[in-house]
């Protein structure tokens, strides 16, 4: 009997795909033989909106691009704007920015670890990691007043200083996470089931990573030593001399699979703790804003002309903002934003080909696509009349983990 | 291990390859850091659109680049201003050299050669520019819409500021795309 092929549309919105995006997979039995990725379900035209506002309004608009890394886009925005306008942020502000960006990296990476655990069916691990993440969110709330959309960056500085008592709270947090990271290494990296479930899944070769133009932890897991903080440093990163975390330095070789990406992310949390510690110890004194008067700042922007590129290494990869100021406008004339997922989603097509249906959630989740908290999915029935919906797909992933657990002889 | 080249060397190679098609160049310097101040430099060049493909090939001869972005600007005039930004010598501490090439593409011949044969990952960028600005990429295999819906009217480009822009659609936001298409 000839094999029948079925389409499994996943999305537009699905628990494993944090963004409204659609993966149309053609399956033959359990194997995916053809894949098509469709995006653009919620294109907000945010660049167009930014070109009609002034630079300060656009800065806070850029914070709304991503719901999780709400400091990544403002960071690239301020770096690019300062380059275009010729403003230099005071040293203290540069250190504060770096601290906040690294705090965000910790919470984003821990969030991802929880999500991936959930996709594999380790739900207690999800709750445990997310409980651990609360501490860094509390610190961000203490520093900025918000747990998300901190609104603390400004062109030429920051709007909130870090006081002595806040610095002490951050130091306590660092001690907490030093222990927590060690526990995470035990739970994730040393676990045989986790290893079996992720080794060889979503494997990206070094050459393919280069050709697909990927960035961030996805590229580093494939063995490429790329990191904006290292290649093109800015602010306090220039003083520190950050080195990209790559699996070959830790375990000797880079295989570029879901296990390596977990490895990179856990070790990057440690690196972030080191960076924060460095910044707290060497924090320069002085003011925190180059031009504290917003009216004067906008007047300066109106008089300026220039174009520049701002880059920041966000938790998920590089964020690039291109600006052009001029035409006597107080906002950017041209604004182009590239987010890490823009390039990283390129990997889904090649990685899903030949994979099993149960691996879709992991392949999709491993690049950490941006979050959009809705739930909607198309329902399809397979030949037996069973519905392939998000729950079934999740169940398939869980079943595979259980099967592996039995095979490896690990008890519940 | 790759050795990063200086801005001058990269510029020299571009000048040799492009000749007069390299209309102008600018080396920009930025100082970064607080205690260990270091200067890094960027290369911004202005080229003739005809020499675009050759310029990109030079990038790939020097080092396999990282494509930062492709964008374009329409100021309502006779041409589109295209911007291509590449990062050379990435993955080397302080080594990345960003090369940004800009050129004016006349609106009566909005055609550019694709770079997806050299870098498959550039497909998303090219598809976005194609649907947003109406630039046709010769040799681009996947020409489906990326961000815009499949039933987006032909000849309308959201980033254009001339008669091909979305002005009439903005005025009729209560209407569906199909209604506008049918001229209701």
TrEMBL record, chain A:
Keywords: Iron, Magnesium, Metal-binding, Nickel, Oxidoreductase. It comes from the Archaea. The keyword NAD does not apply. Residues 120-376 form the NADH-quinone oxidoreductase subunit D domain. The keyword Magnesium applies. Fe cation binds at residues 69, 373. One of its GO terms (molecular function) is ferredoxin hydrogenase activity. Its cofactor is Ni(2+); Fe cation. This is NADH dehydrogenase subunit. It holds the Pfam family Complex1_49kDa. Mg(2+) binds at residues 47, 337. Ni(2+) binds at residues 66, 69, 370.
UniProtKB/TrEMBL annotation, chain B:
It comes from the Archaea. Gene3D superfamilies: NADH:ubiquinone oxidoreductase, 30kDa subunit. SUPFAM superfamilies: Nqo5-like. Residues 45-163 form the NADH:ubiquinone oxidoreductase 30kDa subunit domain. One of its GO terms (molecular function) is NADH dehydrogenase (ubiquinone) activity. InterPro entries: ComplexI_49kDa-like, NADH_quin_OxRdtase_su_C/D-like, NADH_UbQ_OxRdtase_30kDa_su. Pfam families: Complex1_30kDa. This is Hydrogenase.
